[in-house]
Specification:
alpha+beta, seven-stranded mixed β-sheet, two-stranded antiparallel ribbon, globular
Length: 374
């Protein structure tokens, strides 16, 4: 029988190579709009995918999540509450910009506002009480799958900023309307015009399921995180899960000079003022030098990892959460002599790739491609 003809080679358009660096576009750090390398590009950075785009050529990013990519879209509108694309005949509120898919419009003939914003009724301009005081502890109910002390519960605090103070309540209202059962919104004195999104104690699987929608809602409402130096993402792990030795290995791993290049790339920042990285010993699990360390041990119920830059890129959020979970699990198994070995950690992560797929994808795109030691 004759051998089958080989499949035709993929064209450049089919595999979408970057014109500057010849990397696949989804793995390339060059600007998708002007195709310049990061050091030469003056475009803005997208909150949704952390890619660059030219605001003069594209007023907004794609209306749906792309594979780490933004696309220019013409002749469409986005609802500020749900992020869905709406048509020309949809009606929007002149104050908050939300469309009739997510807001009931005022029935008064000369009012162009939704019932949330209008001043026609007795409840005119009622301020949304979604943001609680910074000392509020009314967290959403813990996920039943992680009720036992032997399970590793995870809580996340994500700090966001808004365009200005007048937008804070509008953004908070949109997030609270859709995610009040999952999030506690709290004031944070370190932010300029923002607040923090705080989850309850959940399993890793629950975080993986809920953050894509939370990030989408927050971006659509006008919340931002990555482009601000004031924002961070903190991951809390159940203290009761750790033995003193496991915690000691966890501390050594995150603070080691050997792992620091990779830790900083994953975190997206080096922040000595709020998340200091300093060499640790196994016995340092028994005391803390203060809350502004990379791993904060001052809380009675949780171990807080503070190293991460704030982001609304859902793949990066989940990579950060998965990293903390994987580092704890690996620390419980690894020998003391290997507890600052990055490759040993990655061997464990790759062996559990179904559980840590976002972390693996992030490492491949941001660390492995650039070299793990530079």
């Amino acid at each position: 029988m004759p051998e089958p003809e080989p499949a035709p080679a993929a064209t450049r358009d089919e595999i979408e190579l970057c014109g500057t660096c010849d990397q696949l576009l989804d793995n390339c750090e060059c600007c998708s709009c002007c195709e310049r390398a990061p050091c030469d590009c003056e475009c803005s950075i997208c909150e949704r995918c952390e890619d660059r785009f030219d605001p003069e050529r594209s007023e907004s990013c794609c209306s749906e999540y792309c594979s780490h990519r933004c696309a220019e879209r013409d002749n469409h509108y986005h609802c500020g509450a749900c992020g869905d694309t709406v048509g020309e005949n949809s009606y929007s509120c002149e104050d908050c910009g939300y469309y009739d898919c997510c807001r009931e419009m005022c029935s008064t003939d000369d009012c162009n506002r939704c019932t949330h914003c209008c001043s026609c009724g007795d409840d005119a301009n009622t301020q949304h009480a979604a943001i609680r005081a910074s000392n509020c502890r009314e967290y959403p109910a813990a996920n039943p799958a992680t009720q036992k002390p032997t399970d590793l519960g995870i809580g996340v605090e994500l700090e966001i900023e808004c365009k200005d103070d007048t937008q804070v309540n509008t953004v908070a209202a949109a997030i609270s309307d859709k995610h009040h059962a999952q999030l506690l919104l709290k004031e944070d004195g370190s932010l300029n015009d923002g607040f923090e999104l705080v989850t309850g104690r959940c399993s890793l699987a629950v975080h993986q399921a809920m953050w894509p929608e939370i990030a989408k809602t927050t971006i659509a409402a006008g919340g931002r995180s990555w482009n601000h130096t004031s924002t961070g993402l903190h991951v809390h792990l159940s203290r009761a899960w750790f033995t003193p030795l496991t915690l000691g290995k966890f501390l050594v791993f995150i603070n080691s000079e050997a792992t620091r290049p990779c830790i900083v790339k994953l975190a997206g920042r080096s922040c000595p003022n709020y998340a200091k990285l300093s060499k640790k010993k196994l016995t340092d699990s028994k005391h803390s030098e203060g809350r502004y360390e990379a791993v904060n041990l001052t809380n009675s119920a949780t171990i807080e990892v503070r190293i991460f830059k704030g982001t609304l890129h859902v793949g990066h959020i989940l990579a950060d959460i998965e990293f903390c979970h994987a580092a704890a699990m690996w620390a419980a198994k690894v020998s003391c002599k290997d507890c600052d070995n990055w490759e040993s950690f990655m061997v464990y992560v790759r062996a559990n790739r179904k559980e840590y797929k976002n972390l693996i994808n992030f490492m491949a795109a941001k660390i492995t491609r650039d070299g793990e030691g530079d």
